């Protein structure tokens, strides 16, 4: 599998990475990598080439996109023994779509800069099914962003440079912290409504189209799942918990003491301890039931 200009590498074929591959496939030759063999085979069947290591992806592609669960996976893919930095021919540019902390981005960017590779953090604002219409905040140089635009324009309707490397990570972590807070209070109020004797479905429909300032798009998405008992994951509690822990560490590392963020992190941890981590964030409504006071 020789190198060819215009080839796009994708490492990480979860819900987000698979959506990226599906959108880009019609416009680019793809070389992909993931530890999940079923995910790899789905992409192979759709026409993508498969590489055995991250270094092999780098050898084949000018631009490599990362869509990974968190900092540990990004570090392994970039700096591991068979990682991007070990490639005989490193990629011209790495674009990390993952949700990680700014420190990880800056450290990985520095490692790849020694091999001549550019690096952008471009974490996704949007659900997987909205790929092609995402908003992508981007951290990195204007020069690298210009190189990335032919790819990023296929994924997003809004691409916004928000600063240097790590800046987009800050935007994403703060955004997901708001997600965590809205998710937690939606779960509590929906659960409380049921316990108080209100019809949860009627409670939802009364509020959803009321124009009340409290009603968010996230409320409109997850409250019906709570009513239906549908915990199929669009975004798992485990991933939200990881993102919110990173956000809290980032904020506390700046010398601040954020009480709401701390409460959200505790609520996520309680949901994980209750065995809900692999379920959709809407499943947090079950946590209030588990804590119900005895009659």
TrEMBL record:
Keywords: NAD, Oxidoreductase
Domain 3-hydroxyisobutyrate dehydrogenase-like NAD-binding: 166-288
Name of the featured protein: 3-hydroxyisobutyrate dehydrogenase-like beta-hydroxyacid dehydrogenase
Species this chain originates from: Microlunatus panaciterrae
Superkingdom, taxonomy of origin: Bacteria
Ranges for domain 6-phosphogluconate dehydrogenase NADP-binding: 8-163
Family: Belongs to the HIBADH-related family.
Record flagged with keyword Oxidoreductase: yes
A Pfam family it matches: NAD_binding_11
The keyword Chloroplast belongs to this UniProt entry's keyword annotation: no
Coiled coil regions in record: none
């Amino acid at each position: 599998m020789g190198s060819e200009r215009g080839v796009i590498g994708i490492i990480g074929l979860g819900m987000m990475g698979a959506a990226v591959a599906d959108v880009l496939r019609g416009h680019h030759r793809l070389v992909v990598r993931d530890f999940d063999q079923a995910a790899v085979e789905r992409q192979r069947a759709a026409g993508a080439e498969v590489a055995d290591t991250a270094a092999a992806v780098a050898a084949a592609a000018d631009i490599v996109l990362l869509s990974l669960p968190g900092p540990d996976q990004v570090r392994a893919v970039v700096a591991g023994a068979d990682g991007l930095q070990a490639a005989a021919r490193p990629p011209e540019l790495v674009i990390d779509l993952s949700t990680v902390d700014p420190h990880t981005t800056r450290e990985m960017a520095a490692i790849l800069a020694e091999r001549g590779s550019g690096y952008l953090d471009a974490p996704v604002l949007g659900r997987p099914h909205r790929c092609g219409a995402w908003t992508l905040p981007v951290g990195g140089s204007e020069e690298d962003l210009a190189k990335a635009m032919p790819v990023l324009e296929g994924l997003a309707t809004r691409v916004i440079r928000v600063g240097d490397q790590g800046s987009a990570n800050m935007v994403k972590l703060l955004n997901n912290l708001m997600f965590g807070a809205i998710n937690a209070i939606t779960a509590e109020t929906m659960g409380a409504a049921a316990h108080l004797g209100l019809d949860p479905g009627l409670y939802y429909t009364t509020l959803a189209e009321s124009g009340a300032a409290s009603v968010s798009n996230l409320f409109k998405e997850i409250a019906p799942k709570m009513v239906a008992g549908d915990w199929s994951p669009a975004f798992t509690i485990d991933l939200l918990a990881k993102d919110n822990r990173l956000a809290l560490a980032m904020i506390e590392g700046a010398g601040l003491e954020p009480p709401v963020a701390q409460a959200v992190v505790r609520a996520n941890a309680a949901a994980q301890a209750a065995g809900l981590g692999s379920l959709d964030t809407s499943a947090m409504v079950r946590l209030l039931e588990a804590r119900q006071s005895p009659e």
